[in-house]
UniProtKB/TrEMBL annotation, chains A, B:
Alphabetical list of SUPFAM superfamilies matching this protein: Winged helix' DNA-binding domain
Source organism, top-level taxon: Bacteria
CDD domains with a match to the protein in the record: HTH_ARSR
Name of this chain's protein: Helix-turn-helix transcriptional regulator
Cross-referenced Pfam families: HTH_20 (PF12840)
Cited InterPro entries: ArsR-like_HTH, HTH_ArsR_DNA-bd_dom, HTH_MetalResp_TranReg, WH-like_DNA-bd_sf, WH_DNA-bd_sf
Keyword Mitochondrion: no
UniProt cross-references to PROSITE patterns, sorted A to Z: HTH_ARSR_2
Keywords per UniProt: DNA-binding, Transcription, Transcription regulation
Residue stretches making up the HTH arsR-type domain: 11-107
Length: 131, 131
């Protein structure tokens, strides 16, 4: 009997990647932030889904990872109870040179703006905090 | 009294352009084809909406032009009864270098595939035509 975490993770081959799907996957600030965080780990470095501090619910986050995987932006694999993610840089750079680097730069802007908002909340008096 | 064609055409300023909006605008094959056709006319060249032979209805086509304009990919202006379009290459190249050229290359692929499909239909015996 398959274990609960053994979902089959489908990935498009390089030849199946479409610019329209990749562009759609990159049209969301949370997904750009995920891409930027993955780019911070060394080439082929992997990060577990749980390690991304994203301003969205866990299920929304899962949907974003799935969108990125189905478009061919990331590879996912399960290791025990963790789902690990890495960028498909070779495939993307071969097909759409420069696109991933643009997305990474934009993702870093998103991360910075969230971080600045976080600092502003931390600096505010307790009564003024909104969460 | 305003004439029927004098719709105000709103354009985001360069500073208002967002990568997420531009990526979303470029995530559709018809919009990529529009971008590629506009790139064929000389820098700052303009094409009227009616001159694009696109495999979609006129109203769908209008929606695609509006999406491109609102994202900041094209500028539109009315001249008499014609609505003219041109790429915002300077703005896009300054903000997202390389993105427009990727989109143009992908758009040419779309145009080629439609053209090949058109040729195949033209070559087929009359009974076999599907339109």
């Amino acid at each position: 009997m398959a274990s609960r975490t053994a979902t089959e993770l489908v990935h498009p081959d390089r030849g199946e990647l479409r610019f329209t799907d990749v562009a759609a996957a990159l049209s969301d600030p949370v997904r750009l932030a995920i891409v930027a965080r993955l780019a911070q780990v060394a080439p082929d470095g992997e990060l577990a889904c749980g390690t991304f501090a994203l301003p969205v619910s866990k299920s929304t986050q899962s949907g974003h990872f799935r969108t990125l995987r189905e478009a061919g932006v990331i590879r996912q694999r399960d290791e025990g109870t963790r789902r690990l993610n890495r960028l498909r840089r070779d495939d993307l750079d071969a097909l759409f040179p420069g696109l991933l680097d643009l997305a990474i730069a934009q993702g870093h802007r998103e991360l910075s703006s969230w971080s600045a908002a976080e600092d502003a909340r931390a600096d505010a008096p307790a009564g003024g905090r909104t969460r």
